[in-house]
Design goal:
Blueprint lengths: L7 E4 L5 H12 L4 E5 L2 H11 L2 E4 L5 H8 L4 E6 L15 H29 L3 E6 L12 H21 L4 E8 L5 H7 L2 H10 L8 H12 L10 E4 L7
Parallel strand pairs: 1-2, 1-4, 2-3, 4-5, 5-6, 6-7
Length: about 240
């Protein structure tokens, strides 16, 4: 079978920038995409734009995830749902915020993997899972104790899932983006005292676009990546290589 013709691909966090860009790219490439998130209005608008299917559920609730996924026939998953939390040091962090970040970014991705992989194993056609991690899991970033920790946990979920699911011909990989400069991220990363020193350390010296994150996600789902599993792929302009 050609790329993306083996079955449906679920993309969580589809109402966000990277998730939405991934849904649109996969749809353009001919995939049957199920765009998932909590905001049905945004999901409906995305479906009108690119023809995807939609599915609303709560990543923090196992019952919600189970009910949403138990009857789905899936070949692929993109775990893109996430929460940024706060900018705080370990000395100042709000543990309730830490718990929420972990619950969405790590626990939520594990719940989706738990129930989606059952579908993949039942169908017996193999599959691919891509977890959207962050450069913050690979290096220490000031103020990112909650977010970085959640993404480091997600990285281990990626590696262990790759090990456990490989015998079912299910590949599991992670991508680690740098900042995509959206209105949501600009309040912090757009500050001159933050942006200028950071970009001065990055070989490519600029922020990523949503399309530049969606493209490697699509590649890792494709036949071109059929022998790639368990990797952590930085998409960060070379920042973590320095």
């Amino acid at each position: 079978m050609a790329d993306y013709e083996k079955g449906a691909i679920l993309v969580t966090g589809a109402s966000g920038g990277i998730g939405g860009a991934t849904v649109k790219l996969l749809c353009r490439n001919g995939a049957d995409v199920i765009a998932a998130g909590r905001d049905q209005e945004k999901l409906t608008a995305l479906a009108s734009d690119c023809g995807c299917r939609t599915l609303a559920f709560d990543l923090t609730s196992e019952e919600s995830v189970k009910a949403a996924l138990k009857d789905l026939d899936l070949w692929g998953v993109v775990n893109c749902g996430g929460f940024g939390g706060e900018i705080a040091t370990p000395m100042e962090t709000d543990i309730s915020v830490f718990d929420k970040v972990i619950s969405i970014n790590a626990r939520g991705a594990l719940l989706v993997t738990k129930y989606a992989s059952r579908s993949m194993i039942r169908l017996g056609r193999g599959g691919a899972i891509v977890n959207v991690s962050s450069q913050a899991s690979l290096v220490a970033l000031r103020g990112h104790i909650s977010y970085g920790s959640s993404k480091a946990a997600l990285d281990n979920i990626t590696r262990v899932s790759a090990l456990e699911l490989g015998s079912h011909n299910i590949r599991v990989n992670g991508v680690h983006p740098t900042v995509v400069m959206t209105p949501m991220s600009a309040w912090y990363w757009g500050r001159p005292e933050i942006e200028e020193p950071f970009l001065s350390q990055m070989p490519l010296g600029r922020w990523a676009t949503e399309a530049e994150i969606a493209a490697p996600i699509a590649f890792l789902l494709s036949d071109g990546a059929s022998m790639i599993s368990g990797v952590s792929l930085p998409v960060d302009g070379g920042f973590t290589a320095c």
